[in-house]
Design brief:
The complex is a heterodimer.
Chain A: H1 2-33, H2 38-50, H3 53-75, H4 84-122, H5 125-131, H6 136-174, H7 179-189, H8 192-218, H9 224-257
Helix pairs in contact in A: 1-6, 1-8, 2-6, 3-4, 3-6, 4-6, 4-7, 4-8, 4-9, 6-8, 8-9
Chain B: E1 2-11, E2 14-24, E3 29-33, H1 40-47, E4 55-60, E5 63-64, H2 70-77, E6 80-83, H3 95-99, H4 101-106, H5 111-124, H6 140-152, E7 158-162, H7 170-187, E8 190-195, H8 198-204, E9 207-212, E10 215-221, H9 222-226, H10 231-237
Parallel strand pairs in B: 3-8, 3-9, 6-7, 7-8
Antiparallel strand pairs in B: 1-2, 1-4, 4-5, 9-10
Helix pairs in contact in B: 5-6, 6-7
Classes of the chains: A mainly alpha, B alpha/beta.
Chain lengths: 259, 247
């Protein structure tokens, strides 16, 4: 029996994975069939990009400050205080900035997208859309997908910059690191590929959040309970996908930028 | 115009449709009656391709829509308007935006022309001047009428009604019935409704099909079906539950 259960769960998992990939392909194909509505795109851009700033800035600042303090406390033991800025900068640009911004976006934006589309599904609004000869992917998924592709790298860059500035404030003004050494080491060891790595990751994470959240919303079943379940599943699935993808992207992009 | 042949549909372990076959001609006003949970709405959704059958075919003007993907179905669905059971208005749009949704998507007409046609459709359903309201501000009957305006504003050839009077008080239900009748008479559409409201069926149809145990049990002119002596039809039409056998 446990084997059968594992087999069924694996089958359900691979089926969902295939359907999510199909939704991604359909979203890209949709651009060929229909020009996305500017109004819908700008609405989503405002919701995803503008309204997420406070969350992303807070996350970036908190992460930069903690990373600076922890790095300093360890490096101070071996008298490498001035390398703190470099570690924070590389860590924020290529790893923590994109991953934490994406996780915060999953919670704020992904959950809202799933809940909205899920509610539309259970109240037959998606069927009404289809009955009115409108493809749900063209109308609902593509504006959200494009808004996340555009917003995620900008929000990540904002989070990284705020994190680095916060770390400088903590390192220089609280922990007593010399500002000149802090900045020189930061710029010496942070290469453009580190920044590029973070930005590329953020675009991929944006796509994951959009596709997984929309998929869970469009396939929501049941009433209010179903919407709640779909929202939880979307946040969990997108978060885990981001963490797993991050590992492989780190390896892949390191090979690309540092062959 | 619409030919359904041996359509079967199963959800999980429950077989809802068991080989349904029916024909609907252009310009007819057809009502499909049957018990609640008997698959009427499921059958209606097959007619517009919102659901695909496990087996069987649905042909619209000779085209088999069961073999079409979602993108090709969009073309066929332009022939249809549909009023959903709970109206299914887009709750983030105003009444005016809901009714004008298809016209704006098609982008074939000027904004002034779209506004004129939306106002005309709202006038037809006796709700002039409510275009600025949100769906949440409307009563159940008003929502259905707005749903009807949205379904007819682009002049479809076929209009589907899913339980049009469910959840309405008798006066609101009669109002909807009269509107459906008027739409059929003035716009010359093919009208297909599913309902278990016999008063409604009498008003809005000229032919009735009865769905029973997953199949079309009987069909005929409205008066003939409503006065049928067949025990299954008679019990349903007159709302008589299955007689209890004595212990």
């Amino acid at each position: 029996m446990p084997v059968l259960l594992i087999h069924r769960r694996f089958q359900a998992f691979t089926t969902q994975l295939g359907e999510i990939f199909q939704l991604l392909v359909e979203s890209v194909r949709s651009l060929r069939y229909e020009r996305p509505s500017w109004k819908d795109f700008l609405n989503q851009l405002h919701f995803v990009g503008v309204k997420s700033q406070s969350v992303v800035i807070t996350t970036g600042a908190a992460t930069g400050m903690v990373l600076c303090a922890q790095t300093f406390l360890q490096f101070h033991k071996v008298k490498m205080d001035t390398a703190t800025g470099a570690v924070v900068s590389i860590g924020m640009s290529s790893e923590l900035g994109p991953v934490l911004a994406a996780l915060m976006l999953t919670g704020r934006v992904g959950a809202a997208m799933t809940a909205e589309l899920g509610t539309m599904k259970v109240t037959e609004q998606i069927d009404a859309l289809r009955a009115l000869a409108a493809h749900p992917v063209d109308t609902l998924v593509v504006p959200r997908f494009l808004a996340l592709l555009a917003s995620a790298p900008l929000l990540t860059a904002e989070s990284v910059v705020v994190g680095i500035v916060s770390s400088w404030l903590v390192g220089v003004h609280l922990l007593g690191i010399d500002s000149a050494y802090y900045l020189v080491n930061m710029t010496r060891y942070t290469d453009p590929p580190d920044v590029m790595t973070g930005l590329i990751k953020s675009v991929v994470f944006g796509a994951i959040i959009a596709v997984v959240s929309c998929y869970k919303g469009l396939n929501c079943q049941g009433g209010a309970e179903g919407v709640g379940r779909a929202t939880t599943e979307a946040v969990v699935a997108a978060s885990i996908s981001i963490l797993i993808t991050n590992f492989f992207l780190t390896l892949f992009l390191a090979r690309v930028f540092y062959p | 115009m619409i030919e359904v042949r041996n359509v079967s549909k199963t959800f999980g372990t429950q077989q809802v449709l068991r080989g349904v076959s029916l024909d609907i001609e252009r310009g007819e006003a057809v009502v499909i009656i049957g018990r609640s949970g008997g698959g009427k709405s499921i059958l209606l959704k097959h007619l517009i391709g919102l659901l695909q059958p496990d087996s069987g075919t649905v042909r619209v003007d000779g085209e088999d829509i069961t073999a079409m993907d979602e993108r090709n179905l969009l073309r066929v669905r332009r022939k249809y308007g549909m009023l959903f059971q709970m109206a299914a208005l887009f709750d983030s749009l105003t009444v005016e935006e809901n009714v004008g949704f298809v016209l704006r998507r098609q982008g074939l007409e000027s904004e002034a022309e779209i506004r004129r046609r939306v106002a005309e459709a709202l006038e037809m359903v006796e709700l002039p001047g409510i275009g600025h309201k949100m769906p949440s501000e409307l009563s159940g009957g008003m929502r259905k009428r707005v749903g009807l305006a949205r379904a007819i504003v682009y002049r479809p050839e076929i209009v589907l009604y899913d339980e049009p009077t469910t959840g309405l008080d008798p006066i609101a239900a009669d109002n909807i019935d009269r509107l459906i009748r008027r739409v059929w008479e003035t716009l010359h559409v093919t009208s297909i409704a599913v309902t278990h409201d016999m008063k409604s069926a009498r008003t809005i149809s000229n032919r009735i099909l009865m769905l029973h145990e997953g199949r079309i049990y009987s069909e005929g002119p409205t008066a003939e079906i409503l006065e049928s002596a067949d025990p299954v039809i008679h019990r349903f039409v007159n709302g008589i539950s299955t007689p209890q056998k004595p212990n």
